[in-house]
Amino acid sequence: MFYWFVNFVLYKNHYGPEKLVTKFVVLGVLLFSVFAVDFIVKRNQITATNSFAILYFTLLIVIFPEVLLDDNSVFCTFFLLLALRRLISLKSLKNLKLKILDATIWTLIASLFYDWAIVYLILVGIAIYFYEPKNIKNWLVPLTGIFAVGIIVYSFLIITDNLDFLSNHYQLSLKFDVMEYWKDSTKLAVYAIFTFIGATMTFIKMSKLGMGKIITMRLIAISLVLGFTITFLKTSNDIYPVLVTFCPGAIFLAKYVELIKKTTLREIVLIVSVIAPLLLLITQMIVK
To answer: 64 with 243: CB under 8 angstroms?
Structure first.
């Protein structure tokens, strides 16, 4: 309901039948993304047995409703979540090459929606370095993935007579209005500050955690940094890649809440976390 509210009421958009079908697909992918976040957190026991991560992921969408207008943002985020899931699962040290290949492929598919998403290949390399860097074959797997995806995409472009897509898409250019957006976006700055506070507090307390969890949190932290990098480089008036930061951001916000020992204070923080985005949304509706 909120998805349609943002599109039709908050931003007063009108879509034809074909575009409306696309929007239904986007909504489906967005829902799968929410479930993917929940799966990543619970399967890898990143947080305690609560739903704080999925709560904050949803609240961040309420805070930044404009991300729901950007279909590419939703698709890119979904495939990056799939890549992150595979990289985190490397901690089991089972089927490493297959997981590395999967993560590479999902990242490359994500880059078809945002060119700058290709920087997430850095995360693949870092994951290899964390878990099994001495095996040279692991470093060759991403190259295999790049070659495989390249062949498939190039073949598809030949069939569809759209060979200019790659040169037009992968320009890796900086949007000229990105600084204006960041300068005027107080909520983005506040979100970044709180997220990095949560990340800092998490790592301070991590001395009691096992090495496996420490590496997992490092991967999530690097994913967050890369996400904010893409947000800085790609954001414009009609492109909102901040959605790619919501999974790692929500995880660190959830961890921050978990670190609050006093139950009453934690409940107050959760209540404020829910009320503040709703007030912000109402304010945005009034302003518009």
So the answer is: yes
SS3 state at 15:
coil
Q: How many CB atoms lie within 10 A of CB 23?
A: 18
Contact 153, 98 (CB under 8 A): no
CA torsion sign, 108 to 111 to 115 to 116?
negative
How many CA atoms, within 13 angstroms, populate the side-chain half-sphere of residue 243?
A: 29
| Nearest partner of 40 among 8, 85, 7, 79, judged by Cα | 85
Compute the distance between CA of residue 185 and CA of residue 177 in angstroms, rounded to an integer: 12
Q: Report the candidate in 179, 91, 187, 99 with the shortest Cα–Cα distance to residue 138.
A: 99
pLDDT digits (tens, 9 = 90+) for 197-245: 888 888 887 766 555 578 899 999 999 999 998 888 777 777 788 999 9
Tokens at 64, concatenated: 């930044």
**CB atoms closer than 10 angstroms to residue 55:** 17
Amino acid (1-letter code) at residue 161: D
Contact 179, 237 (CB under 8 A): no
pTM beyond 0.90: the answer is yes
Helices and strands in the chain, H and E counts: 13, 0
The pair of three-digit structure tokens given for residue 204, joined into one six-digit string = 């301070």
Q: How far is CA 180 from CA 185, 213, 231, 234, in A?
A: 8, 38, 13, 12
